[in-house]
Amino acid sequence: MAGPGNEAIISVRDLVVGFGETPVLNGVSLDVMRGEILGFVGASGMGKSVLMRTIIGLLPRRAGRVAVFGVDFDGLSEDARRALERRWGVLFQQGALFSSLTVRQNVQFPMREHLRLSYRLMDEIAAAKLEMVGLTPEVGDKYPAELSGGMIKRVALARALALDPEIVFLDEPTSGLDPIGAGEFDLLIKTLQHTLGLTVFMVTHDLDSLHAVCDRIAVLADRKVITAGPMAAMLASDHPWVKAYFRGKRSRANGAAGTA
Amino acid sequence: MDGSLLEVSVKDGRLALAAGGAWTADHANDLEQLVEAAIQRSPQATSVNIDMGRVERLDTFGAWLLERLVRGFAAAGRETKVVDLPEHYRELVAEAEHVNRAEISPVRAPLVPTLVAALRRGGLALGDDFLQFVQMLGAVSVAGARCLMRPWTFRFTSTIHHLDRVGFRAVPIIFLITLLLGGIIAQQGLFHFRRFGIEIYVIDMVGILVLRELGVVMVAMMVAGRSASSYTAELGSMKMREEIDALRTMGFDPLEILILPRIVALVLALPALAFIGAMTALLGAALVCWLTADMSPEIFLARLRDAITVDDFIVGMIKAPFIALMIGVVASVEGLNVEGSAESLGLHTTASVVKSIFLVVVIDGLFAVFFAAVGM
Fold this sequence. Notes:
The structure holds 2 protein chains of 2 kinds. Chain A has helices at 48-55, 78-85, 103-114, 119-132, 149-160, 179-196, 207-213, 231-236, 240-247; strands at 8-18, 23-33, 37-42, 63-68, 71-72, 88-91, 167-171, 199-203, 216-221, 224-229. By secondary structure, chain A is an alpha/beta fold. Chain A has a single domain, classed as P-loop containing nucleotide triphosphate hydrolases (Rossmann fold). In chain A, helix 3 crosses helix 4 (119-132) and helix 6 (179-196) packs parallel to helix 7.
């Protein structure tokens, strides 16, 4: 729909989150603009998922401010909170599909709970969502345990998109997929982002994803977001970790793609 | 219903539809009804014009309902045009044109299965259960025999760990429950026997009942609830996370590593717990007799010595290891039958406890028949 705008749809200021003695995140500030795909990188175990889970309210914070859609969640009533939560979708790393429901029921679950729709319309919309994420409607009758890793991610994405959210949070969407599957998934995210006008917050390790789909990249190191900007800025950065990450052995800048 | 979402008018044999407002998930229910009503309107009008110019927002729900509207008119052979669709929604609407082309027929199983089918399935499942039980019993025996021949392969640490969990940690709750149970039986006995003036026989009743039957059966049921469930849940979630497959691929026998230590621990723990349970129940009975009927502990003990024999004690205790073996086997079978879903884990854990408790009673009954036949 519209290109990346100048309006911050998620705004994090001086965030401190910790378990026990040591803070995992200390003074994190980050803006996500409406309509952009933000890739969020950082070393394993350094708190990328922690930031995502804090933004969506799964983890408590010690200090700082998190505003989504311009609203800070702290002062909100339960109802207002729920209304806001409907406006985002989350794709968990392992899919987090409800194992006792079929794929169709999984995708319909948020609709069933939040909207009052006829069965016919729910079936049609669920089939439409499954087709949009590149699956055939027949998958709808299967149970999550019968699906491959790539299919689980797609179904989970369909469920995250069930209510047509404005933001989707993706936690390592391409991990565990083969390069072709990962490439298709990247393309899918890009396409959906374009058609549905989504804002995408993507935690990832996949350099190809970062190159292919992300408008901006934010880097988490030393418990802070040390830099955020487009790929070109990352490649030009002098920070040792950023250098190692984007210009290391496995990066494109150093490989065949660097000449492309 | 908000009619301004879709206004319908007829002009010179043409159907003019004007869409407006938010065509989004929140209004999908109203929209669906408006769309269905519009498709039925003025069947004589051969051409339809859908003006999307005033639509403020459109999401997948709206795009699909627009597509359904268009398909509905197209199916009736009416010429349909969509005009003034805002530029940035074109892609989404185009996407909706591809979906739901294939006929979907969700497989919905009948909610109430027929009685015959249910009976048949129940019968087959019963047969299956029995076979799996025998199979597991055989496999455990083989694994046990192998460990006897090569004792160094037996997992002592693991066995001790499970002994602690199913045995030692069960002592407080078993102590409490059997103490109360013994007291309650004695109190009921006193109440009824008092009418005949034979209060002293309460001690006979409690002694025989507790030592021969109740001590071991009650404790076995508690252990079935406590440990069969945890065994099934542990093995089941290991199965779900492919840990059992991992063991197999590394050349280990999950039976030897996971199941044998658990069953051995149970077989050792249950007789000990049954002994503790029986003694505590007697203690509870003695306390009640002392406090409510003025029978001093000395009288209680003296009478108990006359009332019971060592046979009674043996009859009770000898059942315990067999019952434990059975609980362990059932819990393991159920654990390994868990499939991918959380629901399956719950079902099998329930089944494990229910079957264990049922079999405790069955085995106790078989032993009763056996001991009656041999005159013990």
